[in-house]
Amino acid sequence: MGYPQRLLSEGERVDLQLRPHWKALVLPVITLILTFGIGGFLVAVAPKHGTGAQASWIAIGVVALAIIVWFVARPWITWMNTNYVITNRRLIIRLGWIHRVGRDIPLEKVNDVSFRHDSLLDRMLGCGTLVVESAGEHGQVELDDIPHVEETQREVATLISGDPAADMHHHD
């Protein structure tokens, strides 16, 4: 789903739309698989008859559901609702689902943009942290787990440099 065009100003176009790298979902998927595996095992060894049978099955289900909601659904919803949009005029950051946080940084206020790989895995996957230095009151913004972070950094640097090739479609 693209960034709504109605939220862009006249002459503004979306250059990049990003969400955190898929590696953010690896741990939740592993947790889901382990929860089903361990939960299935516990159900299999739990008493089938007797006074505590029903209570133990309910307890296993409640704990499994709590783990799935907190460690699987919550990170996935957070990932789905984290968006970074770079237009020819600004960097748009939207985070959260219920507690939504938004921030727009005009590209003309960006002093520097750099990146870093925080681990060997980040380097192998091509993701990392994009660091945006702005002249605004918040100074530095770090965007974690950006996919193709080197290309993204280059693209933003080209846009903030005012290179006409980066803004071919924009006419004043």
Molecular structure report:
This protein has 172 residues and is of the alpha+beta class. It contains 4 helices and 7 strands, in the order βααββββαββα. The chain has helices spanning 26-45, 53-80, 120-125, 149-160; strands at 14-18, 83-87, 90-95, 101-106, 110-116, 128-134, 140-146. The strands form 2 sheets. Strands 1-2-3-4 form a 4-stranded antiparallel β-sheet. Strands 5-6-7 form a 3-stranded antiparallel β-sheet, with helices on one face. The longest helix has 28 residues, at 53-80. The model is unreliable at 166-172 (pLDDT under 50).
Instruction: Specify the structural class.
Output: alpha+beta
Gap between N and C termini, in Å?
Answer: 29 Å
Per the principal axes of the C-alpha atoms, what is the gross shape?
Answer: elongated
Please give the number of β-strands.
Answer: 7
* Estimated radius of gyration: 22 Å
Strand/helix succession: EHHEEEEHEEH
Strand order of the largest sheet: 1-2-3-4
Number of helices: 4
Average pLDDT, all residues:
88
Low-confidence stretches: 166-172
Sheet having the most strands: 4 strands, antiparallel
Q: What's the assembly state of these chains?
A: single chain
Query: Beta-sheet strand percentage?
Result: 25-35%
Please give the share of residues in helix.
25-40%
